[in-house]
Amino acid sequence: MAELLTDQIVRRASAGSRAQAFFWDDQIKGFALRVTNRGTKAFVLDYRIKGRQRRITIGNYPDWTVAAARDRAKTMKREVDLGGDPMGARHEDRQAATMQDLWDRYRDEHLVHKTDRSRKDEAAMWESLILPALGREKVRDMSTDQIEQLHWDISEKRGTPVRANRVLEVVRKSMNLAIRWGWRSENPVTGIKKNPEQKRERYLSSDEIARLNAALEEHPEQVSADAIRILMLTGARRGEVLNATWDMFDLEKGIWTMPSAHTKQRRSHRVPLATSAVELLRRLRETSKGRYVFAGKSPDHPLTDIKRTWKSLCQKAGIENARIHDLRHSFASILVSQGASLPLIGAMLGHTQVQTTQRYAHLYDEPLRGAAELVSRAINGTSEKPGRGE
User: Is residue 228 a contact partner of residue 216, using CB atoms and an 8 Å limit?
Assistant: First the structure.
């Protein structure tokens, strides 16, 4: 029998020997107090939507008073009258994808198409930076302010502004995918400014290269030393060299063909090899026992790291402030000095975008200045002309 729910009725209510009992309110249809045989009391609302009977829990007593629960029941009833479904909305909210869910799908569907190095790097960003801060947040509720705060924390608290920019790029891409998957409608990363980054331009001089070659000759770890030699002779990326397998090479024709899965740009890349590179590879092939050109601890696994060797070589050669990747920049600078064009350099390095190669354009300043001087001498009548007898 329904009656007006009051604080006195709620306090006295008991399920007795029943598993649960309901005490219905006579003013708001469907509003009731539910009591279990363990004494737990909660306010509920029954309603019908699209022919389906629903029951939603408003809140437990005494956390919710009768008056507060009644007001909430009225609000829900109005929502139902307008076509809403409070219980459905609650279920939808519980099932809404979190940032952890986004990472799981991003990892399984997007990250698998990237190189090993990229996969490890992005996984580290998610697991150590993004998920600890935002893992439980709903993807649809992520705000620009939250992501901007994450970017600031990584930049300022951790003191790694460049890393913060990389995290921002990863979150931006994941949010674009979330939009494609229907998890949200806009990208909250849009409009967030990156930290300023100074493009690094370090090229080994001819003297530094000579000292490096001398140090390589004396280095005790020849496998890693030879890997660095190939880096110098091809301009390839570290991962491309360390993961190279013998089936990629045609040493008779002097060609290294990297499959798409092996390159950063995800396209196959054909690299013509210099005679010295071919000779070095032939020497390595004679003693190789596995599929990898530069084997690690076993022939079936590649060499994974040459940082220690690089540090030792730089100390021996007296080279400061140089990274392994600077060998790639140095390769490009030598090509420029020998008169190679930007398209040719791009082809040698496997660039797919012109702007990537354009970073080396300033290296043409001196050759172009020399050409301008030739024109200037001709115009001013000071160009040297060969004598009659020559």
Answer: yes
Q: Are residues 37 and 83 in the same domain?
A: yes
Q: By the 8 A CB rule, do 164 and 148 touch?
A: no
User: What predicted TM-score, i.e. pTM, was given to this entire model?
Assistant: 0.52
Question: What is the tally of structural domains in the chain?
Answer: 3
Q: In sequence order, which residues have a C-beta less than 8 Å from that of residue 177 and are 6 or more positions away? A: 102, 105, 106, 109, 110
Residue 57's domain comprises: 7-95
Residue 340 falls inside a structural domain: no
Domain assignment present for residue 338? The answer is no
- Distance, in Å, from the CA atom of 334 to the CA atom of 314, rounded to the nearest integer, reads 20
* CA 186/CA 320 separation, integer angstroms: 46
Characterise 25 by phi-psi region: left (phi > 0), alpha (psi -120 to 50), beta (else).
beta
> What is the pLDDT tens value at each position of the chain, 390 positions in all?
678 899 899 999 998 888 889 999 988 999 999 999 888 999 999 988 887 888 888 899 999 999 999 999 999 888 888 888 777 666 666 667 899 999 999 998 898 888 777 889 999 999 999 999 999 999 988 999 999 999 999 999 999 999 999 999 999 999 999 999 989 999 999 999 999 887 767 778 889 989 999 999 888 888 899 999 988 888 888 888 898 999 999 899 988 888 876 666 666 777 888 888 899 999 999 888 889 998 888 888 888 889 999 999 999 999 998 888 888 888 877 777 777 666 666 666 766 555 555 555 555 455 555 655 665 566 566 655 444 444
Query: In terms of domains, do 13 and 38 share one?
Result: yes
Q: Does 301 map to a domain?
A: yes
233/319 same-domain check: yes
Instruction: Please choose, from the candidates 64, 41, 46, 65, the residue with its C-alpha nearest in 3D space to the C-alpha of residue 56.
Output: 46
